[in-house]
């Protein structure tokens, strides 16, 4: 009984160790000594980030095709949940521009309920990914792939804003990128000069304000100033009309229609609407949910890495994925859309002096307070002003200079991957771009690695062996990893084995690793040598993993094969085999029947 309890305890301890801990970043911050001074710094930083997040959250929800309050709900629920359960001290989570490309088609095809359900399913996938310790694998996504699809996403986001920047009367933007431009071109005669003037003024303020002062977030100053100016001009000149959040969106509160966003906190709801979630809905949304999860994981972990570089801290990628998953599971039950780590808000959080995840929680509380206290004022925000804000976000996200620099200095193969990912993201979608890009990058990597694996005929006199080696022995050396990208090419060298060599020594001491394909190629070469009546001595040390050779037992399954621990032992064995039958090469069964040398 005691042993059984011990085994259960050990199993529970192993399971606990296998799962990333919840709230690791928050617990580390508290363990380091959380003082009133640190709380003050976090509150100040959270307020600053909340001011930045307020207009961005609404703009991003609108860009997706959802009412603006759903972006705010995402910031409130997911922002706090991920901060409390995740693995990064400074990460700020919320709706991001990268998601626009993925989420907008979901709204078009499945409506708001489909968007919320897909986000919830993505949260489940993210939690599983973190629990399975997949966080470390995100670092293996090649740089040309991330740069290509990031610039492609920025291009699509900028294109989507042209409609509101110019005030074009396009009821619904098509899904296809080419069709978007066709729709814009078809409506070009209906350009609204007031909307364009608002967008241009907002963009100018966003660019110019940071050059004069960084005390106030330029996003808040620009949006508030332009909204106030538009309201005053409209009152003085009623003919001056632009689309605003109040004219575009309405909600019903206690039977009354409210312009803009409702002055209510995020309330519990079922993401999929009334009734039960059907299997057909889940099946239709599996693909979009997977895309949300993959992009969310990539963007969030990249943002956390950049935050680590700014602060000198280290995040836990697996715990961050679990926290991100929990946040995305909870947010849809309160009307929130998909969320991930937001790089711009995270960088603002660091620069504002944040010391722990408490700052992100404060930023969520600030946005909640803004909804409850200032919802009527949000109705005056012009759509063109939010579109201008997203134009600047898209420009900063694109990193055009970095894209061009990479295209100029990177190898041609990487440039090909870069432009392929960019093109596929713009014309098709991010999932295809990342999938194709990773496969292309992997193939190029394997091609480069195969160049490191070489096979050559070694001149025996140049080897450091004990004494001269008689004629009749050919030595072949393979150097480098013997994996599926290089195995076939490396084994072609055995086609050059002549009739004078009765024994082939295969030196594998310079092969660090071997995989299943390499092993199959090795066995195929051994069978060809057996057909040519050649004895083979495999000289170690054998490649890793050693258990592969223990399981396959080459000597038992190939009668012409011997295994020696080193090159010196292989030559000694070769001389002994030649002495046994000086006229003809023996088979290994003959040699073993006559007594196998003690050196093996």
Q: How would you characterize the overall build of this protein?
A:
With 600 residues, the protein is of the alpha/beta class. The protein contains 24 helices and 9 strands. It has helices at residues 2-18, 24-31, 36-64, 68-85, 100-131, 143-165, 177-186, 193-212, 218-236, 245-248, 279-311, 317-330, 343-351, 358-378, 383-398, 400-409, 412-427, 430-452, 487-491, 516-531, 546-552, 554-557, 567-580, 588-593; strands at residues 93-94, 250-253, 256-259, 340-341, 454-458, 473-479, 503-510, 535-539, 561-564. The protein has a 5-stranded mixed sheet with strand order 5-6-7-8-9, sandwiched between helices. Strands 1-4 form a two-stranded antiparallel ribbon. Strands 2-3 form a two-stranded antiparallel sheet. α6 (143-165) runs parallel beside α17. The chain is elongated. The model is unreliable at 584-588 and 590-600 (pLDDT under 50).
Secondary structure blueprint with pairings:
Blueprint: H1 2-18, H2 24-31, H3 36-64, H4 68-85, E1 93-94, H5 100-131, H6 143-165, H7 177-186, H8 193-212, H9 218-236, H10 245-248, E2 250-253, E3 256-259, H11 279-311, H12 317-330, E4 340-341, H13 343-351, H14 358-378, H15 383-398, H16 400-409, H17 412-427, H18 430-452, E5 454-458, E6 473-479, H19 487-491, E7 503-510, H20 516-531, E8 535-539, H21 546-552, H22 554-557, E9 561-564, H23 567-580, H24 588-593
Parallel strand pairs: 6-7, 7-8, 8-9
Antiparallel strand pairs: 1-4, 2-3, 5-6
Helix pairs in contact: 3-4, 3-5, 3-9, 3-13, 3-14, 3-15, 4-12, 4-14, 5-11, 5-12, 6-7, 6-15, 6-16, 6-17, 6-18, 8-9, 8-15, 11-12, 11-13, 16-17, 17-18
């Amino acid at each position: 009984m005691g042993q059984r309890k011990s085994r259960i305890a050990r199993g529970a301890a192993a399971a606990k160790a296998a799962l990333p801990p919840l709230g690791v970043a928050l617990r580390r911050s508290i363990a380091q000594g959380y003082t009133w001074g640190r709380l003050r710094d976090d509150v100040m930083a959270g307020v600053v980030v909340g001011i930045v997040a307020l207009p961005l959250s609404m703009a991003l929800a609108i860009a997706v095709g959802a009412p603006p309050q759903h972006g705010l709900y995402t910031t409130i629920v997911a922002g706090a949940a991920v901060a409390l359960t995740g693995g990064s001290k400074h990460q700020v989570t919320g709706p991001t521009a990268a998601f626009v490309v993925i989420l907008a088609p979901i709204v078009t095809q499945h409506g708001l309920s489909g968007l919320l359900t897909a986000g919830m399913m993505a949260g489940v996938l993210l939690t599983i990914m973190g629990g399975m310790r997949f966080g470390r694998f995100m670092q293996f996504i090649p740089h040309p792939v991330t740069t290509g699809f990031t610039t492609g996403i920025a291009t699509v986001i900028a294109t989507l804003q042209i409609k509101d920047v110019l005030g074009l009367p396009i009821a619904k933007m098509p899904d296809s990128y080419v069709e978007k431009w066709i729709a814009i071109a078809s409506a070009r005669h209906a350009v609204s000069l007031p909307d364009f003037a608002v967008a241009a003024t907002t963009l100018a303020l966003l660019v110019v304000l940071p050059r004069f002062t960084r005390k106030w977030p330029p996003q808040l100053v620009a949006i508030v100033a332009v909204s106030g100016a538009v309201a005053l001009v409209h009152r003085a000149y009623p003919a001056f009309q632009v689309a605003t959040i109040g004219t575009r969106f309405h909600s019903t509160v206690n039977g009354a229609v409210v312009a803009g966003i409702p002055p209510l906190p995020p309330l519990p709801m079922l993401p999929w609407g009334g009734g039960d979630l059907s299997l057909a809905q889940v099946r239709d949304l599996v693909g979009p949910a997977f895309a949300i999860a993959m992009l969310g994981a990539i963007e969030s972990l990249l943002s956390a890495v950049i935050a680590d570089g700014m602060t000198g801290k280290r995040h836990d990628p697996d715990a961050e994925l679990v926290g991100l998953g929990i946040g995305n599971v909870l947010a849809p039950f309160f009307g929130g859309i998909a969320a991930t780590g937001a790089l711009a808000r995270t960088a603002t959080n660091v620069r504002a002096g944040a010391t722990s995840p408490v700052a992100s929680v404060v930023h969520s509380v600030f946005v909640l307070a803004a909804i409850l206290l200032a919802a009527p004022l949000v109705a005056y925000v012009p759509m063109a002003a939010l579109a201008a804000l997203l134009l600047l976000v898209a420009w900063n996200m694109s990193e055009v200079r970095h894209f061009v620099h990479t295209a100029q200095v990177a190898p041609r193969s990487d440039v090909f991957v870069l432009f392929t990912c960019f093109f596929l993201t713009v014309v098709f979608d991010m999932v295809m771009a990342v999938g194709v890009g990773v496969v292309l990058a992997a193939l190029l990597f394997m091609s480069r690695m195969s160049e490191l694996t070489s096979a050559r005929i070694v001149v025996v006199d140049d080897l450091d062996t004990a004494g001269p080696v008689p004629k009749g022995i050919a030595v072949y050396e393979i150097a480098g990893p013997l994996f599926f990208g290089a195995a076939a090419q490396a084994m072609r060298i055995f086609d050059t084995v002549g009739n004078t060599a009765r024994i082939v020594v295969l030196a594998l001491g310079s092969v660090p690793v071997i995989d299943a394909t390499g092993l199959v190629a090795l066995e195929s070469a051994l069978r060809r040598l057996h057909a040519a009546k050649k004895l083979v001595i495999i000289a170690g040390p054998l490649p890793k993993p050693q258990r592969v050779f223990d399981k396959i037992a080459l000597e038992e399954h190939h009668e012409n094969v011997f295994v020696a621990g080193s090159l010196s032992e292989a030559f000694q064995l070769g001389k002994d085999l030649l002495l046994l039958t000086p006229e003809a090469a023996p088979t290994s069964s003959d040699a073993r029947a006559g007594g196998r040398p003690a050196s093996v």
